[in-house]
Amino acid sequence: MLSSYLESVRTGFAAFVGVGALVLLPLIAVHYYRFGRVEPRRAVVLYGLLAYGLVALALIFLPFPSPSEVCSGEEMLSTTPFQWVTDIRNNMAANGRSGVGAAVTSTAFLQQALNIALFMPLGVVLRKSYGRGPLAVVMTGLGISLAVEVVQYTGNLGAYPCPYRIADVDDLISNTTGSLLGWMIAPAALVVPAVPHPDTSTAPSDTVTVPRRLLALAVDLVTLVVITHLVFADDRWWAVALAVTIRIALPSVTGGRTLGGWLLRYQIRRADGARANPLRIALRELLGVTGLITYAALAPAAWWFAVDLCVLALILLGTFFVPVFRRDQRSWPDLAAQTRAIPTPKRPRPENTEARQPAARLPE
Q1: What angle, rounded to 10 degrees, do the helices at 236-244 and 289-298 form?
Q2: Residues near 44 by Cβ (< 8 Å), separated by ≥ 6?
Q3: Domains of the chain: which residue ranges?
Q4: Tens digit of each residue's pLDDT (9 = 90 or more) over 28-39
Q5: How many whole angstroms separate alpha carbon 217 and alpha carbon 234?
Q6: CA dist., res. 40 & res. 21, Å (int)
Q7: Is the pLDDT of residue 250 over 90?
Q8: What is the pTM for the complete model shown?
Q9: What gap in Å lies between CA 43 and CA 268, rounded to an integer?
């Protein structure tokens, strides 16, 4: 029995890896649409629920038998509450065993213990992450368990001519009990985060999101590559000089805007909103994109691959991955240089002074 459960767990986890990769980009898109960022605690809870749900479904429904192996004539519905207690006694009598040890190691007891444990994470997450009370947790556990039993009794909603697993009222009781026990032990589950309120999850209105900065960076990089290729014949020293010009010199004289920043309407300022001086912009860039371009262009070809990989991972992680989860969307280079990206303020439209002049009074 244990080996079949472990195989189902492996299958469920493998499904989670595949499904998790498929929903990663949609999850990021939905989070950015709602909050302007990816709230890490929400992401952890959602992915945890996804993994838990797929593993639980694998344990409940796998392995799928061949259709020729079902419809054996056995009764596949049990409506007697606590039938598992009688099954334990019958099993012990049939094997000539007695005592507590024999009872807790019997198949019937282990099956109920698994049913309870299977729904305990649900109660933990509903209380710890979403703040649900015991009644809501019990009703949720009961509803999900009832849906599972209905699917089992109908042969996976008609996929099989007959059910291949027993729809058991004891499963309803043990699953619901597991949900309640999970709710009771939830305060001890320190690794389960609480999902914050949407108001505290949303990025401030003056935040420039990572996708917006990536689009601006793409504009700068395309400009860099085209000019380097057409004008400087792909010379790497000129590529570095042009990168410094586009990403450091130009923002220093335009109030923190590169060409991409101008098109995407944002600028680099100090953390307090004041104009960033050239030293801050240079530090930010040398620790970020411009530093990576310089390293890629000038590092020796025979340099250690491990060093190349570490530099690439560190800069990409700090510049583009970490800000996704921060409420202010600031990268490691921003934090080091005490800068931030802010939207470019719109210029006020000139007022039509002629329309506001009072009409001339006619002589009486």
Answers
A1: 170
A2: 193
A3: 1-63, 76-202, 210-343
A4: 888 888 888 888
A5: 19
A6: 16
A7: yes
A8: 0.75
A9: 29
**Mean residue pLDDT across the chain:** 88
pLDDT above 80 (res 350): no
Give the C-alpha separation, 119 to 123, whole Å: 7
Beta bridge partners of 339: 270
The confidence band for 266, taking pLDDT boundaries of 50, 70 and 90, is: very high
Nearest to 260 by CA among 346, 314, 345, 341: 341
Sign of CA dihedral 254, 257, 262, 266: negative
Count of other CB atoms within 10 angstroms of residue 204: 11
Structure token digits, residue 283: 């530090």
Q: Both tokens of residue 57?
A: 């479904």
* Buried b / exposed e along 311-324 (16+ C-beta atoms within 10 A): beeebeebbbebbb
The DSSP symbol for 348 reads P
The answer on pLDDT for 364 being more than 50 is no
